[in-house]
Amino acid sequence: MLRIRNLKCFYGRIMAIKGISLSVAAGEITCLIGANGSGKSTLLSAVCGLLPDWTGEIELEGQSIKGLEPPAVVRRGISLVPEGRLIFPPLSVMDNLKLGAYTRYKKRAANAVEADLESMMSLFPILRERFRQPAGTLSGGEQQMLAIARALMARPRLLLLDEPSMGLAPMIVEKIMEVLEVLRSGGLTIVLVEQNALAALEAADRGYVLETGAVVLQGAADELLADKDVKRAYLGKDYGDFYDAG
Ligand code: ATP
User: Fold this and answer.
1) Per-residue buried b or exposed e for 4-23, using 16+ beta carbons within 10 Å of the residue's own CB
2) Residue nearest to ligand 1 atom 14, measured at CA
């Protein structure tokens, strides 16, 4: 679905991504894990057309998306759930959702958009209860659900999520990971960027570990979960001991 080759990303003279290659298989959840500043968000920005300065190649289903503006990337089938949610606080839940579909209104798809609003409220029943409420009055977990639903309103084939678990209670994180599983079962391809390595690897099929702008480890998610270095560096000592004890 997505292939990245030798990606190098620049902020002025700083190279934040130093030659990453990776691929995302259709119908799978692929996670990118790594510490603060390892380049996860930068990589997503490059894919979405939000980063002006990068070299290498990014292909969606075999077609280059290099040089496309963000709306064109969305039209090609890629949707981003940004870090920190970035919902529009004064607008209602309904209007936030409709904005997620703005590229489709141009195609006179208003009826389909209405139907998708209904699907989003079935997927996240809390959004039905909050439908006419300003989005800024929602709890953190509800705002994250809204951000995911807004991204889905574009009808993506590839959904990118940037740290959806950030600042949320474990129970809410679990709920969000369950929703990702439901979406994957429906055929959606997902890239999940997370500092919460445990939640991400448990949800994912494959994973990449990033350190200072480079991939240092990759593999099946269950293999990474069992990897000694991953356990030590990203899953915490106790979790490692638990596994070592069998
Ligand atoms: P986090 O988990 O904190 O979001 P990340 O893995 O997503 O981290 P990035 O935000 O992609 O990492 O940052 C990668 C590197 O690029 C870091 O060294 C960061 O300081 C740098 N960087 C990010 N944004 C900019 C910017 N706008 N200008 C200059 N440097 C930047």
Assistant:
1) beebbbeeeeebbbeebebe
2) 39
The Cα–Cα gap between 31 and 202 comes to 10
Q: Can you give the residue ranges of every domain in the chain?
A: 2-77+156-245, 89-155
- Choose the residue to mutate in 36, 50, 196 for probing ligand 1, maximizing ligand atoms within 8 Å of C-beta: 36
Report the nearest atom of ligand 1 relative to the CA of 43.
11
User: Mind listing the pLDDT tens digit of every residue in the chain (246 residues)?
Assistant: 999 999 999 999 999 999 999 999 999 999 999 988 999 999 999 999 999 999 999 999 999 999 999 999 999 999 999 999 999 999 999 999 999 998 887 666 778 898 999 999 999 999 999 999 999 999 999 999 999 999 999 999 999 999 999 999 999 999 999 999 999 999 999 999 999 999 999 999 999 999 999 999 999 999 999 998 888 888 875 554 555 554
Task: Please say whether the structural domain 2-77+156-245 has been given the CATH code 3.40.50.150.
Answer: no
Name the nearest CA neighbour of 198 among 233, 165, 171, 225.
225
